[in-house]
Design a protein that fits this description.
Largest sheet: none
Shape: rod-shaped
Structural class: mainly alpha
Number of helices: 9
Distance between the termini: 54 Å
Helix content: over 70%
Number of domains: 1
Length: 207
């Protein structure tokens, strides 16, 4: 592997750095975008119990906001629970935009890596072919070793760039889909709380 990196030329270094960054982002996003971390299944039921027993306090709301992204959204609505429905929904939407931004953290970087690594591989191909033609100009075609070195560099960088870009793009699309699913789930749960607080849902319909 080390020999391959050496033969690939200096462009292998940024490609390798991109692969490390992509791997770190993928691991972090897998950990952060777990459904149980973003949208705990018992959270809405807990809020309902507090509301039903009239024990919902500011301390509960603060703890809810620190619980998870869904909890942060619900807390924003509950702070305005004594205001009209529209005010409650607006506060949820405002905080929701911030939560979505947090859920999409590092995804733009992942998408950028998926876009630029093939280009770096292509650049390596061009540089390798330039070396081949330069060698032909100065030494002719009688030295296959020199020609093979340039062609090898071109092929290695291209393969390395694609090897990083393809899985990175797959994970980028996967995490985009995961974020969309989580956002939809949070919207549904937040609307349940709004409806319950304003009497638009009965107990059986709340969850």
């Amino acid at each position: 592997m080390f020999e391959m990196i050496q033969h690939g030329g200096w462009l292998m270094l940024p490609i390798l750095v991109c692969s490390i960054i992509a791997l770190a982002i993928v691991a972090e996003r897998f950990w952060s975008l777990q459904a149980k971390k973003v949208t705990p299944s018992t959270l809405v039921a807990q809020v309902w119990q507090w509301h039903k027993s009239q024990t919902l306090t500011d301390e509960h709301i603060v703890a809810l906001g620190n619980n998870s992204p869904l909890g942060k959204i619900l807390a924003a609505g509950l702070i305005n629970r004594n205001h009209p429905r529209d005010i409650m929904k607006e506060s949820i939407e405002e905080v929701g935009h911030q939560v979505i931004h947090e859920l999409e953290r590092y995804l733009n970087t992942l998408g950028t890596i998926a876009s630029i690594t093939p280009l770096m591989g292509l650049l390596g191909t061009v540089i390798g072919m330039i070396k081949v033609f330069a060698a032909i100009t100065t030494q002719g075609v009688g030295n296959p070793t020199v020609l093979a070195g340039g062609i090898s560099e071109a092929l290695i960088t291209t393969a390395a760039g694609l090897s990083v870009a393809i899985p990175t793009l797959i994970f980028y699309r996967f995490f985009r889909g995961r974020v969309d699913e989580l956002v939809l789930k949070m919207e549904e749960e937040a609307l349940k709380i709004v409806d319950v607080m304003h009497g638009d849902r009965v107990q059986q319909e709340k969850i």
